Amino acid sequence: MAALFIFGVILKRVLSGIQPSGQLHLGNYFGMMKRMIHYQEESDLFCFIVNYHAMTSIQDGNRLRDNTLNAAMDFLALGMDSEKSTFWIQSDVPQVTELTWILSNVAGVGLMERGTSYKDKLAKGLKANMGLFSYPILMAADILLFGGEIVPVGKDQKQHVEMTRDIAIRFNQTFGDVFIIPEPDIDTENQLVPGIDGQKMSKSYNNTIPIFGEEKVIRKKVMSIVTDSTGVDEVKNSDCALFHIYSSFLNEKETLELKERFTIPGTGYGDIKKSLFSRIMDHFQSFRAKRAYLENHKDSVYEMLQHGAEKASTVAEEYLTRARNAAGLNYRV
Ligand code: ADP
Ligand code: TRP
User: Fold this and answer.
1) Residue 229's domain spans which residues?
2) 73-82 exposure pattern, b = at least 16 Cβ within 10 A, e = fewer
3) What confidence tens digit (pLDDT) does each residue in 103-156 have?
4) Does some domain include residue 201?
């Protein structure tokens, strides 16, 4: 298989997919997007928007279409580079659905039934269709079709990568050595970013600060971050949502300075919120300009995505051909 060499060093293939399930927020940015964008500097990054997976929760064509394109534009605006990385939309490389079928024949029903994410979704009242049930097989196909070696995911997705390993090992034992066995890479360093109500920031809790929201929406959200009733002249507790959201933007020294501000008489929560709002706008200023540019130049977005899909397809064809040959699907001998 092709490997990426830079100055004689073989770069690992890091691969991850992101669901286009709604407006991306500061939690997604600090917990995942920033990290993925950084990977393109030090690895052979394969990153894609998983719209087939999103069908398990979004069954409205217009919404899926909009979310998919918006997620892609968000990533490109934040610095995902279609030359440095391979960045595409999952459904532009439909070979992944063929591999899903092939892998379905070595994936046990029991393995799927033990899926905690599947069980959680059922418990939340989601209807069990076959898409939801075999979600982990599509994810295995995503990883194996492109020879992913390192898979950065949140803790909740670790089991899916372990299932991928099981499925790949079973395939290799049954049909011969075709697939690379991937390793999960779980981020243990970064803290979860709290939402404006103090719980984990998540679109399901309606407590997010959107990265590319309108300025007045962002201001309103920041000003409504929950705080206690400590008076302006009293020492304030810095173990709160306002402090933790703000410190996501800061280095160590700046974080200490922020902590100090919580103790200064005369500085109210409102003042700190105003500074946070300015910090957010400054941090994202150039990204917002790029995002607006892309919004008005969709043809260039389509072109970058097409380029990514073509690069991804070349790798997909290699692995798929080997899997088809090993499984006996290619009958021309
Ligand atoms: P949401 O909770 O809004 O539905 P997702 O589950 O789609 O977000 O998460 C997408 C990615 O963003 C995952 O990699 C997840 O670990 C990361 N992420 C989501 N919320 C946060 C948060 N509050 N803090 C840090 N990372 C987060
Ligand atoms: N299931 C992952 C999530 O919800 C998204 C995903 C799909 C993925 N395919 C993948 C992650 C392949 C890593 C590798 O977050």
Assistant:
1) 213-283
2) bbbbbbbbeb
3) 999 999 999 999 999 999 899 888 899 999 999 999 999 999 999 999 999 888
4) no
Catalytic residue among 121, 236, 273, 311: 121
Do residue 163 and residue 236 come from a single domain? no
Whether residue 27 is found in the same domain as residue 90 = yes
Give the residues surrounding ligand 2 with Cβ less than 6 Å away: 15-17, 19, 50, 53, 139, 142-143, 151, 153, 157, 160
**Is 259 an active-site residue?**
no
Q: Which ligand 2 atom sits closest to the C-alpha of 154?
A: 15
Instruction: Choose one of 13, 36, 50 to mutate for the ligand 2 pocket test, by most ligand atoms within 8 angstroms of C-beta.
Output: 50
Q: How many domains does the chain have?
A: 2
Least confident of 9-13, 195-199, 225-229: 9-13
Instruction: State which H helix or E strand residue 217 sits in.
Output: helix 215-223
Domain with residue 255: its CATH number is 1.10.240.10
Atom of ligand 1 nearest to the CA of 25: 3
Q: What is the pLDDT of residues 8-36, one digit of tens each?
A: 778 999 999 999 988 999 999 998 899 99
Residues 247 and 220 in one domain: yes
Whether residue 126 sits in one domain with residue 54: yes
Marked catalytic residue, from 200, 220, 274, 290: 200
Concatenating the DSSP letter of every residue in 151-200 gives EEE-GGGHHHHHHHHHHHHHHHHHH-S-----EEEE--SSPPPB-TTSSB
Burial class of 116 by CB neighbour count within 10 A (0 to 12, 13 to 18, 19+): exposed
Give the distance (Å) from ligand 2 centre to CA of residue 207. Answer: 23
Q: Using CA atoms, how far apart are residues 313 and 223, in angstroms rounded to an integer?
A: 46
The label of the residue with tokens 């020492």 reads 235
Ligand whose nearest atom lies closest to the CA of 207: 1
Q: What was the pLDDT predicted at 190?
A: 77
Q: What pLDDT score does 9 carry?
A: 78
Ligand nearest to the CA of 205: 1
Same domain, 123 and 264: no
For residue 47, give the CATH number of its domain: 3.40.50.620
How far does the centroid of ligand 1 lie from the alpha carbon of residue 201, in Å? 8
Q: How far apart are CA 132 and CA 138, in angstroms?
A: 10
Residues 162 and 231 in one domain: no
> Which listed residue (34, 84, 158, 203) is catalytic?
203
* Confidence band, pLDDT 50/70/90 cuts, at residue 1: low
State the pTM of this model.
0.93
- My answer on whether 265 and 141 are in the same domain is no
Tens digits of per-residue pLDDT, 261-295? 999 999 999 999 999 999 999 999 999 999 999 99
